[in-house]
TrEMBL record:
The protein's name: Glutathione S-transferase C-terminal domain-containing protein
Stretches assigned to the Glutathione S-transferase C-terminal domain: 17-63
CDD domains per the UniProt record, alphabetical: GST_C_family
Pfam families noted in UniProt: GST_C_3
Protein's organism: Kipferlia bialata
Amino acid sequence: MLEKMGKDMVMIVSGVERTLVGPYACGEEPCYADFALGNLANMMKMGGKTELLEACPKLAALAALYE
């Protein structure tokens, strides 16, 4: 499941695991962790592409690089 957390930031929710993806997700500096973008790419492959595009087009474009 995907939750929009604000401008250009989403939360991937998988059971009890939550992964924040977007700028400032890893602290004070902009961060797009490779593993998190990989998770988004996997979600897109499993049918979540429309959901991610609606929530955050910028992250969808970045995650597409990992497909």
